[in-house]
């Protein structure tokens, strides 16, 4: 099969399309023909070595496709693929299992999510990781309530657009930051009440003006290093700063006393893995997200489709923020 293999860390050029042996499913595993793979900053972190992996390596942790084959167990098990009902031809999606930049992937059966009838497979690949991230952030890390004021960085990105829609669905007032007029229009269309173009306006003073000096109840910050200071300066007393990513680079070391000076601010660095650790929680979050997309309550914006051979270009486009919405690789 064809797969995008990285044999060393580095820039996008280390992603090379190669012919490699098909993977084989073992007990409790399923082989899937990959129809689409989401392109995420997590993949870039693995490519650059920020998230170390064993080389050679095939990245790609968000995919959807069609079951090709299930592993064979000598004896039935509670978690085996047959007991979960997966059969050849079933459409499924998954997150947080590597190997998706390929024509076929092997996935533990208990990490697979069945796709709703009528939902395009590409749509599922475009929304699972970012949609469940938006879900846990707004429903669990900081459950947004009607009247809450939320600051969201990178609001026109794939995750940002989904967070924006869920904040508005939950009754929050949304302040979005973006870099360009075009992205401001996209954020406004997703429901932003106020948009700050950080290339022209200092964020924290603008937030304080918008909130009459109070600050926001919560900041959802997926950028990291470049936005952290503005985020901390924008939170109200006893509010929460949620750093859920580091697309712009890691946050420098922090003296926790600064949280005291900021007003007893809560700081957390959550991870989707910890909010989908059990199968019940995985299915519940995925079911909500896919259900909202299926019935039109949640809109997914596709920012670009690339063949496997153009994985390097997809990484370069994502890192340079040349796109809005979700990027997909299509084997």
**Oligomeric assembly:** single chain
Strand content: 25-35%
What does the largest sheet look like?
A: 7 strands, mixed
**What is the CATH fold-level name of the largest domain?**
Quinone Oxidoreductase, Chain A, domain 1
Please tell me the total number of domains: 2
Name given to the CATH architecture of the largest domain: Alpha-Beta Complex
Low-confidence stretches: 74-81
The geometry reads as globular
Q: Structural class, judged by helices and strands?
A: alpha/beta
Tally of DSSP β-strands: 15
Number of helices: 10
- N to C succession of SSEs: EEEHEEEEHEHEHEHEHEHEHHEHE
- CATH-wise, what's the superfamily of the largest domain? Medium-chain alcohol dehydrogenases, catalytic domain
Range of helix content: 25-40%
CATH hierarchy class name of the largest domain: Alpha Beta
Radius of gyration: 20 Å
Distance between the termini: 10 Å
The overall pLDDT, averaged over residues, is: 94
Give a written overview of the molecule.
- The protein is α/β, with parallel strands linked by helices.
- The chain folds into 2 domains: 2-126 and 294-330, Quinone Oxidoreductase, Chain A, domain 1, CATH 3.90.180.10; 145-269, NAD(P)-binding Rossmann-like Domain (Rossmann fold, 3-Layer(aba) Sandwich).
- The protein contains 10 helices and 15 strands.
- The protein has helices spanning 41-48, 121-141, 158-169, 181-189, 203-210, 228-234, 257-261, 272-275, 279-294, 311-319; strands at residues 2-6, 15-19, 29-39, 62-70, 91-95, 104-108, 113-114, 149-152, 173-178, 194-197, 216-221, 235-243, 266-268, 302-307, 326-330.
- The strands form 3 sheets. Strands 3, 4, 5, 6, 7, 14 and 15 form a 7-stranded mixed beta sheet that branches. It has a 6-stranded parallel beta sheet with strand order 10-9-8-11-12-13, sandwiched between helices. It has a two-stranded antiparallel ribbon with strand order 1-2.
- The chain is globular and about 60 Å long.
- The termini are close together.
- 45% of the residues are buried.
């Amino acid at each position: 099969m064809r797969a995008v293999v990285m044999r060393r860390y580095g820039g996008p050029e280390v992603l090379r399309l190669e012919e490699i042996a098909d993977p084989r499913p073992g007990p409790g595993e399923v082989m899937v023909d990959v129809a689409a793979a989401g392109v995420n900053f997590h993949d870039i972190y693995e490519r650059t070595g920020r998230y170390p992996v064993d080389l050679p390596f095939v990245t790609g942790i968000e995919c959807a496709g069609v079951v090709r084959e299930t592993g064979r167990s000598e004896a039935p098990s509670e978690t085996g693929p047959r007991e979960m009902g997966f059969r050849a031809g079933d459409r499924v999606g998954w997150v947080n299992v590597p190997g998706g930049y390929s024509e076929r992937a092997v996935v533990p059966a208990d990490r697979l999510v069945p796709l709703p009838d009528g939902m395009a497979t590409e749509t599922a690949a475009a929304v699972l990781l970012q949609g469940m991230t938006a879900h846990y952030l707004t429903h669990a890390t900081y459950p947004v309530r009607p009247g809450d004021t939320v600051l969201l960085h990178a609001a026109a990105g794939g995750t940002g657009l989904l967070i924006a829609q869920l904040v508005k669905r939950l009754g929050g007032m949304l302040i979005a930051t973006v870099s360009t007029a075009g992205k401001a229009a996209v954020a406004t269309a997703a429901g932003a009440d106020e948009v700050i173009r950080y290339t022209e306006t200092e964020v924290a003073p603008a937030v304080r003006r918008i909130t009459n000096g109070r600050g926001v109840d919560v900041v959802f910050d997926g950028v990291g290093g470049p936005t952290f200071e503005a985020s901390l300066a924008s939170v109200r007393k006893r509010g929460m700063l949620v750093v859920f990513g580091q697309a712009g680079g890691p946050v420098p070391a922090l003296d926790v006393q600064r949280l005291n000076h900021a007003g007893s601010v809560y700081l957390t660095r959550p991870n989707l893995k910890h909010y989908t650790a059990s199968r019940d929680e995985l299915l519940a979050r995925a079911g909500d997200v896919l259900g909202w997309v299926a019935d039109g309550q949640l809109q997914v914006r596709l920012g670009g489709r690339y063949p496997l051979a153009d994985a390097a270009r997809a990484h370069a486009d994502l890192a340079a923020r040349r796109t809005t919405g979700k990027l997909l690789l299509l084997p």
